[in-house]
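Notes to self, tRNA (Guanine37-N1)-methyltransferase:
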Amino acid sequence: MSVPCVAVARERGETVRSRLADADALDGDHQIAVDDDTIYIPVVGRDRVPADLADRIVARDAAARDRPTAPAEILGYEPSLERLGGIVIIDEDDDERAREIADAVMAADLPCETVLNRASPIEGELRVREWDVLAGNGTETVHREYGHEFALDVAAVYFSPRLATERHRVVEQVESGESAVDMFAGVGPYAIPLASRGADVVACDLNERAVEYLRENAERNGVADRVTAIAGDARDLADSHAGTADRLVMNLPHSAEEFLEAAVALAGDDCAVHYYDIQHEDDPFGPGRRAIEAAAGDAYAVDVETERVVRSYAPHEYNVCLDVRLTRVDD
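result:
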C-alpha cells in the first residue's frame, strides 16, 4: 500500500524519527523501511510533519505493522483519547463509560501512567480545570515536544499539546541573539524553544505555579541562563522592559487585546508579534488586525505578514494567529 513517507539519509534516521514522534506525525500502522542509504519513515499526513522535512515526503509502498493491543480492540469502539506525557486524557460525561475506557487504556499495550477525565471546563483567570483521576495517582507528568521536555501539573497549569505544531512554526522563525518576550508563558512551551534557538527570553505568567514549572523546565532543557521568568501581570513588564522586544508572543486568545497597549510599549524599533485570537468565521482576522493598528497608533507601521487559522475552536469560531511586524515610525 502506498503511504506518505519522509525519506532521509540512513544516518539521520533516528534523529528524524524522534522529531516526527515529538510532532505526533508517525504512522504506527506501517513499517519503517531502508533502501540502500535511505530510510523511509511513514507519516500520518503532511500537515503534522515539521516544515523543514515537508519537502522530503514521498509516496512509497509500506508493509503493514503488527500493532500491540489498542484500547479500541478491547472496547469494540474507538474512544477519543489525548496524550500528554504519561497521561491519557478522555472527555466523557458518562461515568460508567469513562471508567470502561480508563480500564481499557490501562489494560492495553499503551505507555500510560494515569488516565484523567475532564471534570470541568477551563475556568478562571489562570485557565485551569478540574479532573477526575480514573487510573494512576496524580496529575503531574513530563511532556516531550520537538526535542524539549516540560514538567507540569495539568490540575495547576494550562497546557495544550494540540498547539505543538503552531508553537514549532513560530519558534522556527527566531534568530539567535533576538530579545523575545512571552507575555503569557505558562510552563514555557514557547519560551524554552525560543531560548534554545539563541534568543534571550523574558517569560511572564500570572500563575505562580506555572512560573515555578517554567524555571524548572528552563533548567531541565539547559536554557536557564537565557530565560528570565517573572510571575505577575504582563502589563507590568512595560515599566521594566519598555522598547526591548524584537519578538512578542501573545498567546492568550480570549483576552490578548487587553494587553496590546503593553505590547506596543515593549516593542523595539522592529518587532515581530505573534497575536492569537478567537473570532467568528465571518471575519476571523479583522478584529485582531484593527485592534493592533489602534494600539500602534502613529508610533509604528503595522504589516500583517501572516494570517493563519490554527484550529477550529467552536462551531463557527476559529483560533487564529496574526504574525505582525511593528516598525517604529521616525518622528
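- DSSP finds nine helices and 17 strands in the chain.
- The chain has a mean pLDDT of 93.
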